[in-house]
Amino acid sequence: MGWATRPNLALNRAWALGGTVRMGASAGGRYWVSGLSGSEAQTLVGDLALRVTRGNAAGPSLRRPRVGLYRPWNTSMDEGWTRWLLERYDFDFQNVRNSDVHAGDLLDRYDVIVLPAERPGALKDGHAEGSVPARYAGGLGDVGIRSLETFVRTGGTLVAMNQASNLAIDEFHLPVRNVVGELGRQDFFSSGSIMEVESDVAHPVMAGMPERAKIFFDRSPVFTVEEGFEGAALLKYQEAGSPLLSGYLLGEETRARVRRRPRRTLWRGARPASRVPAAVAGAAIRNVPGAVQLRAVLTGHRGRGVRK
User: Fold this and answer.
1) Which of the listed residues 54, 134, 163, 179 has the most CB atoms within 10 Å of its CB?
2) Closest to 180 in 3D by CA, of 265, 249, 117
3) Residue 31: its pLDDT value, please?
4) Domains and CATH numbers, the chain
5) Which of 94-108, 113-127, 237-251, 269-283 shows the lowest mean pLDDT across its residues?
6) Element at 126 (helix H, strand E)
């Protein structure tokens, strides 16, 4: 059977039941599930009110991704909301602490690692020594950063949310720039606003997303790419007109058009949710293994599932 709705929860439940999941050969977010008993399939369809069709499964097989959510010892509200989102949609994930990252060999344990939306300094340095018991002091540090870089360069997927994107850009020397990073609030400011972006729905990672998506912008980065960028921008602002749907936006002229280049590294300008499920997050984490080889995902805006 296949369905064209956003299937985060459905696919995770199908995997948990031992089903096989394949991505549809054509664009549009259709997935095929086989290997379930008749009663299991009927329960899945009924419980989630899925629209399904029957047919022969085709397209690349997707295995359930092994997801790690980085959980710093310093308090992170965004980590908590992201953990709630993953739990709400039955993702198979593990909490990742500093010691786990420092141990290395991350690709043996995870396909995807998610960094919550925190300042680079907070992620890298954590609590100062002497301010808390020794086991809670420090952050990723240089050892952790190099471990994450090795994970990415050997085929893992790093999802860096909002401000955490700047950590990946600076430490991995990526040809991506935050064009509003050095602007003052008098030149560029937007917080708690809803923006509209264009989605590259033909890319497997964006399967199930609408061509025009809504994101939640909360003092977020605005990316452009530099010379040498060889990735894909899966979400971008429109070339003409305002992206603002609700809220406040000062300095709209600073928005940058993203150039497209061959797809070896993935760059994405929207991020998953805090309080409300977001399709973008599930699409990125769900579609990575087996569908397309990824290197890094940078998510620059806080998409709280505001969608049609």
Assistant:
1) 163
2) 249
3) 82
4) 2-62 (no CATH), 67-299 (3.40.50)
5) 269-283
6) none
